[in-house]
Amino acid sequence: MSWTVLEQAHGALRSVVAGIGESGWALRTPCEKWNVAQVVRHAAGDQLGYAAAITGSGGPAEDPFAPSEGRPGATDLDAALAAAAAAFATVAPGTPEVACPLPLGPLPAETVVDAAALDAAVHAWDVAVATGQPSPLTPELAAHLIPVAELIAGALRAFAFGPALDPEPGDDAAARLLRFLGRDPEWSR
């Protein structure tokens, strides 16, 4: 079983991480307390959290909400994404209750998949804009992720997302999603 939206989000994250130059790891990001290395460590830890919730084993080696500043190992992100993909491959579409690391309890399969994809896609955007790469968060992917963001963001605002920003005229789905999650789509270093 594969989940297309998760594959797209994982691909976006892999792509921007592959494009980080040697000096890019220490750059500041839209996650104002974290540099690029910390955002990548956080994103990998979150994906390991989803895998561990589903499989009951593994999990991140460090607190994803207190990531260390050093550059992650070359295979750390790939291993985390592979673990999440393998865990989600065991989940059938339509499963009514799937364990997840969010403080919302078990949720339907599609919701948990979309939440993991949301995390990967938004952090791919964080890394891309911090390192001067094109945004991998397409309006189509963002439009698919807006409903899950609306479902989970309220419970996570205190520690995972900032306060929602007001939409601007002309915002596409990516900009609307980013603003809803407290990010300025026009952010620059």
From TrEMBL:
The record ties this protein, via InterPro entries, to:
CHP03086, DinB/YfiT-like, Maleyloyr_isom, MDMPI_metal-binding
Tell me which residues make up the Mycothiol-dependent maleylpyruvate isomerase metal-binding domain.
Answer: 6-128
Pfam families on file: MDMPI_N (PF11716)
Supply the Gene3D superfamilies for this chain: dinb family like domain
Q: NCBIfam families per the record?
A: maleylpyruvate isomerase family mycothiol-dependent enzyme, TIGR03086 family metal-binding protein
Please give the name of this protein: Mycothiol-dependent maleylpyruvate isomerase metal-binding domain-containing protein
